[in-house]
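Schema walk-through. Below, the input block comes first and the output block second. Nothing else is stored per chain. Lengths vary across the set, and this one has 132 residues.
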Amino acid sequence: MYLYTREDSDQIPTTLQPRNPTPGSGYAFCPDSSAVEGFGQPPDAVNFLRAGGEIKKQLERNFRADDVTGYLDRRRKLRQAFESVPKSFAKHLVDQLQDKNDPLAKLFNYKISRHTRNEMISILLRNIGETI
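--- output ---
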């Protein structure tokens, strides 16, 4: 991989090519929040990335069927992460979680119970100011 263009090639190096994300191509929370902190990102964006990373991390956890403390711990951490989503990004996250083709929405729908999903959505809606 080259960081500069080669004289004998018309190719643009892969490090300089723009990335065009397509819907459903990956998680919305791909970049690490520490990667964007020093680059003039608004604090809401950094907080959104942190909250999103924690949500993704908790949804990817696996438990045995009898691990009640693990389920309760995940629910507590999800509650904290959803409460920390900034108001300016809450509507975006609600829309993303309702998209059936989004990878994060698939994790959200298949890894936690309906009651937990409803609680997390209600936290976001309360943050936005909408009634349930």
